[in-house]
Amino acid sequence: MPVIIVCEPAIPAYVDDVESPWDKAKKLTDDATIQVVYLDDGVAVYCDEDGVAKNLAINRYLPATMPEIPDGMVVIDGTNGNHPEPGEIGVHEIRGPFILTREIGEDGWEDLSENDVARYLELLNQQLRVP
Fold it and tell me: Is the pLDDT of residue 65 over 80?
């Protein structure tokens, strides 16, 4: 069973062992459509794809490098153009509950490393927002 990090609003992030990170994300988000966001170190974030449209509260921010934008495409992200330039560090604004995991292949997962767990628990719990 893969080791993941679970991050729910207003409580500290915690480590969990689950049979399926995908199923855990679906349960946390009340069966929402799951968006997968890959961070620079390969860790995957499973969150509610419609968090902004549902006006879910901001849960946490995760650092990420802005990717190169292919010619003819534009960034539509709701930040009024205040996003970083390609190659610059920015943040993913995660709304609602989410999990962090590592994927292997199309339908497989592996444990987050001890370094992943230590790094992300510290980062996420520093940002804890309690209403």
Answer: no
- What is the spatial distance between Cα 100 and Cα 121, in angstroms, rounded to a whole number? 10
Neighbours of 44 (CB within 10 A): 18
CA pair distance 77, 3, nearest whole angstrom: 31
The DSSP line for 50-117 is TTTTTTPPEEEEEEEEPPPPPTT-----SSTT-PPPTTSEEEEEEES-EEEEEEETTTEEEPPPHHHH
- Chain center to CA of 119: 14
Domain boundaries, the chain: 3-126
Position 122 confidence tier, pLDDT thresholds 50, 70, 90: very high
pTM of the predicted structure, to 2 decimals: 0.82
Average pLDDT over residues 75-88: 62
Q: Which two tokens stand for residue 39?
A: 């961070």
Structure tokens at 78: 């709701």
